[in-house]
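This part of the workshop introduces the protein records we will be handling. An example says more than a description, so a record of this kind follows:
>
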Amino acid sequence: MSRKSAILDIDGTLIDSNDAHARAWVDAGDEFGFDVAFDQVRPLIGMGGDIVLHTLSGLRASDPEGGRFKQRAGEIFRDRYLPGLDPMPGARALLRRLETDGIRRVVATSASPDDVVALLKQAGVHDLVEKTTSAGDVDESKPAPDIVEEALKQAGCAPRQAVMLGDTPYDIDAASKAGVPIVALRCGGGWNDEDLRGADAIFDDPADVLDHYDQLPFAK
């Protein structure tokens, strides 16, 4: 069965934003009286903000203080860090190639709905994405498979008709649980090939994926 859809993570995959998200949590922690170390939060980036929040503070997003803490981290990220972020090498070129080949491009991200549009614009690919799914669309965020399963619904395809691109073990877990093949990228940083060993293939960044495009499942 030919693969007809590319399911795309954003942070660390299409845009170099993982460190910035971690710094935003550190800054928000300072404001809310939580001693959050960068090295503590950086390995959590890629999971949903509700999970990050609870791990760092013991608070839940449904708690008044937890909700404000999480919201503030998002505000700091968007206002203080997002404007200076760069797209990952080859991000736009890869999505253009997928578009040319008639492969649907659907985002599946643990980012908040407020972040998705801004991230895609900063990455320079907002006009090349057809559908988006984010933490606001599902009950559980990555590493649960909910976001990937919702992306499959948006794409209108079966799991084996899609390939996911992501950069963290949480992407690999979510895709695997949903039955979707996954290509992992090293460009998100913070993870080595052993951490990403569950992926069907590992490449440096979108440019490297494009260089090996003919070897990939969605090219067949």
Q: What stands out?
A: Residues 138 and 146 are 6 Å apart (CA to CA). The mean pLDDT is 94.
